[in-house]
Amino acid sequence: MATSVTTATGVAARAVDVWKLYGTGEAQIAALRNINVEFERGRYTAIMGPSGSGKSTLMHCLAGLDSTSRGAVYIGETEVTRLGDKGLTELRRDKVGFIFQQFNLLPTLTAQENILLPLSIAGRKPDQGWFDTIVDTVGLRDRLGHRPTQMSGGQQQRVACARALVSRPEVVFADEPTGNLDSRSGQEVLGFLRDSVRQFGQTIVMVTHDPNAASYADRVVFLADGAIVDELHDPNADAVLEKMKNLDKVGEHPRGDA
Amino acid sequence: MFRAVLKSLLARKIRLVLSGLAVVLGVMFVAGSLVLTTSLGDSFSNLFATAYQNTDVQVAPKPAPGQNADSGPSAARGATVPESVVRTVRGIDGVRAAHGEVMTNGTVPLGSDGKAIPSTTGQQYGGNWSGSDSVVQLRSGHGPRAPDEVVINAGLAKTGDFAVGDPIRAIINGKTHTFRVAGIYGYSGNRDSLGGETSIQFTTATAQRLLLGRTGVYSDVTVTAASGVSQQTLADRIGSRLGDGYKVQTGAELTKKTTDSLKEGLKFLNYILLGFAGVALFVGAFLILNTFSIIVAQRTRELALMRALGASRRQMIGSVLLEAVVIGILAGALGLLAGIGVGAALGYVFTHVGGGNLQLSIGVPASAVVASFAVGIVITVVAALFPSLRASRIPPVAAMRDAATPDRPLTRISIAGGVVFVGGAVVLGFGLFGSLSGTATLWAILAGVLIAFIGVALLTPLIARPVVGAIGRLMSFSTAGKLGRRNSARNPRRTAVTAAALMVGIALITGVSTVLSSVQTSIDRLANEQIKADLIVSGQQTSEVPPSFDTALLGRMRGISGVSSVAGIYRTSAQVDGRNTAVAATDDVPALEKSLSIQRSAGSISGLGDHQALVDSKTAKSDHLKVGDTVRVKLPRGGGTYTVSGIYSSREGGMSGWLLPHAAVAGFGLTNPTSAYVTVSGSGSTASVKKQVDALLADNPLITVADRSDYVHQQTSTFDTVQTMIQILLTLAIIIAALGVVNTLALSVIERTRELGLLRAIGMKRRQVMSMITVESVTISVFGAVLGLAVGAGLGAAVVRALHDQGITQLSFSWGLMVAYLILAAVIGVLAAILPSIRAARLNVLNAIAYE
């Protein structure tokens, strides 16, 4: 689908006037304040912000893992915020891919089984060509029969990446994907994510607090105190770091980051 | 440290409840059985204290040969006390009053439907009415005045729905008589019966004629003392006056004897209940062991941190054991309370069944309280011992590592399991085949089974992997099923202990049903081989006295066309050369021998002279008797010297013992035949003969005629009842094991929270999560069942093999039941998964992923 790669048009996910509130009355805290953001299809976006800025909460709300207090979230044309549990489950299964900081692989399954898990849960047949492409891209061809305990952290996270991509989701959400990795493994994973955007037109939204990780993205959205405060396109690590320093001065309100 | 333990307990309430519940159930059985026996014992003591309230001394004949001296009113027609003794006793100084009493067991009342009214205690008294006193109270009508008038107790009136003026039929010595209810009486304290018995009282003359066979004799003499004369003094005086021929007992002695024999009976009930308590606790121990193992595994980091902070090994062991003690105390207390409730409820049922409304006084013996807490604490602590040792071996450095500890190899535990299993098998084999005395045999078998079970439980992890994989494969048609199967094979130890608990219950049930069905099959086969008679006339025993029928019927059966021979059988208790035994007599020796396939061993067995007797080869061998020897036989109402004229042999389980000539029947306690074997001639039709014999027996519902296969089936049908009872009780063990499955699953769900969160995050539906947990549960349960069926079948086969010499030659498995147990296990698996799977499906995806 070379055309869709180059013309990367449309919006994969968007938030409209999203508020996320915790508690009531005096004790009420706003984790997200009137967020309006769009994530274009075929782009690699990083969400950054200091601890407690609400970046993880935003991602959870976008992915349908958490509910919003006000406002609407869309994945493609689907309004996530109107879905019940069943709809959310199917949304996550068919339209969303996840990559977690903790890898979160099933220890009883081999690498191959872990990668194919979303498809087998849905009862769908894997596309062998696509599977091979992913496996070769992440470089796990010789590890497919191994269990998670027999693999390094970097390898496990690459399995998690392959798993997120295998069902060709509308958007992949990655939550601090390099947080538990050494810098070399982290770079491999980040490079692989960027390649999947470039080569396959995948849409990726990644939460991170690491400026170096953010520099792999096409665009960085900055969050502070629950609101979007800034944005960078085609960033480099130094620019991101500079922005972050400023943000740290702004957002000094301590708050439990969800 | 104590505060930390309490906090950790409170933080794990569900776990506490689940593991505690097993102990509570076990303790409940222990306490319940002790409370029940004490309460019933107390109630019956009170009862008999009032029953003999107006009896200071009782004069009774010496018990008939072979009869139990303490079994209350002499069964059937035994020895009697003549009228003259009553007069003699009246003349003794210190006697205020003495009257002759007729009281025998075996007067069977018939209901309006023509069927016998059963008595819960097996006592169906007939006697002479001696008027109201402070214990016996006439409630309506009047005493019997005519020979056909009777007074019945209110209990019988209620069960049989009799009112004053109604006709009542009763079978006495094989004959049906019709009377008219003249009055209904009860006992002091507004009781309808003493203990659920039926009682029909006649005029003295009628009672003597019908029950004792002649007038002028009594069953015993009831004496009241003049004021100022003690029971013992009076008894001594009467005793010395009457000499050795009579048994003289005080009212206090009688009360004590009756109560003691009742308590002896209750002991049996006690043993059964305690046995099931044992099973429940044994299974419960598995559950607790598993819970503590999982808790220790889950808290590895926490425990390692405590070690790192300087807690000693001993403190680690102490902290786990302290938790066990607290659970034990709580479970003991709850079990005790539940046991008191169960004991009281069972006591109420026992005392109110069959119209008896006995006053029940609930007694909680100190032993119940002590046993409840001791059992509760000891079982939990023993079960928690291994997990506590494991906790103490956690190195401090584990606090810094990932909590997931690698699977330890199963070599050591498997070797240990093998050794223990072989040890148990050896002990069991010693018990089954060795030459131990009675009680030692029982203990060896019990210990053997127990040790073998532990051995199998230790071996289970090794078996778990392949077997669980195989079982799971049957269910892994979906991704959820596949994941469930993998999860159940994930921690072989945990799966093993959970399944082992189920294994114990199912193995016991399977073992018991294997033995029972083998015994049944063997008896069936033996009886079919041995009994050559075409029709068998016999009675179902409903009271202590076997039902009998009129001798004249034998002749009338012979008169039926198509009948080639009839052998009537008479039975009685007797003493042969001083030894208590049961003897038989027949009116047609060759017909009996033909009917029962009896073979000649020595001498002649073709007939019997009036002073000749036949004996079976086994008895002859053990008593060193040969043809021509003489034996002294004491019968309830006679006896004499008999010469052994022949020795016969029959197969194991067939006819055995002494066969006396027809003439000896006059001295039997029961002079009517109790059974008969009818042979139909080649030209006759069995069915038509059966119909005619049926017609002859029409007015005696206690006696029935059956063809050979029906008869054989009747003989073994009691086994079905026994099997049902044991199944019901052992179901408790299975319920506890099911709790174990729930517990394991609940803990697994907690442990795998993050995985479940991930599965939900990547799109697994709630229904899929639930079916995943259910598959895991069913796999574990079916694994336990398969193990239990294998172990139980092996156990049953071993017992059957040991019983080979007792004539149990057929090994037969009740396949239907075994399949039913397997299905039951699968159902248990599904039920056990309900709560954990709902819990898993309801997990908040976001929290679950972030769960540590």
From TrEMBL, chain A:
It comes from the Bacteria. The keyword Nucleotide-binding applies. GO terms for cellular component: membrane protein complex; plasma membrane. SUPFAM superfamilies: P-loop containing nucleoside triphosphate hydrolases (SSF52540). Pfam families: ABC_tran. One of its GO terms (molecular function) is transmembrane transporter activity. Keywords: ATP-binding, Nucleotide-binding, Transport. Gene3D superfamilies: P-loop containing nucleotide triphosphate hydrolases. Residues 13-250 form the ABC transporter domain. CDD domains: ABC_MJ0796_LolCDE_FtsE. PANTHER family: ABC TRANSPORTER RELATED, IMPORT ATP-BINDING PROTEIN. This is ABC transporter ATP-binding protein. It comes from Actinocatenispora comari. The lineage of its organism: Bacteria, Bacillati, Actinomycetota, Actinomycetes, Micromonosporales.
UniProtKB/TrEMBL annotation, chain B:
Belongs to the ABC-4 integral membrane protein family. The chain crosses the membrane at residues 16-36, 268-296, 317-350, 362-389, 410-434, 440-464, 495-516, 725-750, 771-800, 812-835. It is a multi-pass membrane protein. This is ABC transporter. It comes from the Bacteria. It comes from Actinocatenispora comari. Residues 276-396, 728-844 form the ABC3 transporter permease C-terminal domain. Residues 59-80 are annotated as: Disordered. It holds the Pfam family FtsX. GO terms for molecular function: transmembrane transporter activity. Its main location: membrane. It is found in: Cell membrane. PANTHER family: ABC TRANSPORTER PERMEASE YTRF, MEMBRANE COMPONENT OF TRANSPORTER-RELATED. Keywords: Cell membrane, Membrane, Transmembrane, Transmembrane helix.
